[in-house]
From TrEMBL:
Family annotation (InterPro entries): Homeodomain-like_sf, HTH-type_TetR-like_transc_reg, HTH_TetR, TetR_C_34
Keyword DNA-binding: yes
Keyword Ligase: no
Known DNA-binding region: 37-56
PROSITE patterns hit by this protein: HTH_TETR_2
Name of the protein in question: TetR/AcrR family transcriptional regulator
One Pfam family here: TetR_C_34
Domain annotation HTH tetR-type: ranges: 14-74
Keywords: DNA-binding
Amino acid sequence: MSEFQRARSPEQVEARREAILDVAEELMTESSVGEISMRELARRVGLSASNVARYFPTREAVYLEVLDRARGAWLDSLTLDGDMSEVAATLARSLATRPVLCELISVLANVLERNVSTEIARDYKLRSAKHNARTGDLLHAALPGLSAETALELSAAIFMFTAGMWPLAHPNEAVREAIKDPRLSGSRLDFEDRLRRLIVVLTLGYQDVRRRIGQ
């Protein structure tokens, strides 16, 4: 690790950043983001917290980068084919199988964006907008009944649905036990199925509006 700590070239610096992000993502298989401290992250990387802070000033900055990387990897793997139902099913399934991405989306507004500088926030938002545009392009190509504008809006809506539904579909142990009560059956949420149905409903709505206004 000593040679790694003395990294100075751009390639070595990038390697260290990627190593930090890899460990940060791995930690999410053990704990939620809110339970992971910068100290624990640094310990697992094999650096001091002050050394990690040279690359990412806060824990939140680390996880914004993990989110950006995870969203890009998701889009790289995404192929949308078939009719509207098949496209919706593919989108829902692809997100449901990426828990790290979905959890980070769900804590973006109330955790990750709370302890970062204006510069880091702006950089993340600009990259997020590019991801959203890329998703919109995929939707527009797969669903020609959508205009480019409404495909972009649908992309943003899918992001917001994921943010809201993921924590509801993955509650803590106490809540999981509580909703086993038959009287609370309506509180049990299947993330993939609900997201799929919402995408279909919203797509139909956009297509209907487009027909009505002749666009």
